[in-house]
Amino acid sequence: MSSWQLIGFGPNGWGALLLTASFMTLAVTITAVLMGALLGAAIAAAKLSGNTALVALGKGYTIIFQGVPELLIIYLIYFGGSSAVSYVAKLFGYDGFVSIPSFLSGTVAVGLICGAYQAEIFRAAYLALSKGELEAATAIGMSGALRFRRIIVPQVLRLAIPALSNVWQLSLKDSALISVTGLAELLRMSQIAAGSTRQYFTFFIAGGAIYLLLTAFSDNIFARAEKRANRSMQPSRLTDA
Hints:
With 241 residues, the protein is mostly helical. The protein has helices spanning 3-6, 15-48, 52-67, 70-91, 102-127, 131-139, 144-174, 186-197, 200-229.
């Protein structure tokens, strides 16, 4: 059987399984990035609050999840989390082992890592805001909530888009590490297909090509989002009447 038949959608091809695994990779990455955005916003707010305890908490979070290897965090969440849940279950009379689903543990692990990087992005974007705009909003009587919704959030997101694109790419690649938990994402399915057919080169090249396609597609989306967000910042051009 040729390589094209193996990675195709025929009766003996692995194309459908690889496509399903690609959607699983996207699902993990999207969920983790959204979770990381919420965590990142909260940690950034803590580090900007001026409160000593909250600043220390925010710094500790970013140091831990930026400094500890990603694979170790995944192991800790998957195996350590399952052990913790099993221990709690024993307190209620259940003697069996309770495992955390691979998807849940994987997205939580990648989301925690992603949150540490997004926290620094949001913090830096906030510090780059024009103080004059914030002062003007306060001067005209804008409430804190309205100022946050109408000025801070749009400006921070506009400034953060290029860096968030990098975080997305890192999270997309980090999702491959979840294969150690048995989740049938793209790398895991490539390994299964390669082991079943003994065509390691074919399937690992196919997996790499799919990752590159996902990267190119997401790069295009972020480029469009950045261009759209910066429309109002483009210098106006005067034309002759």
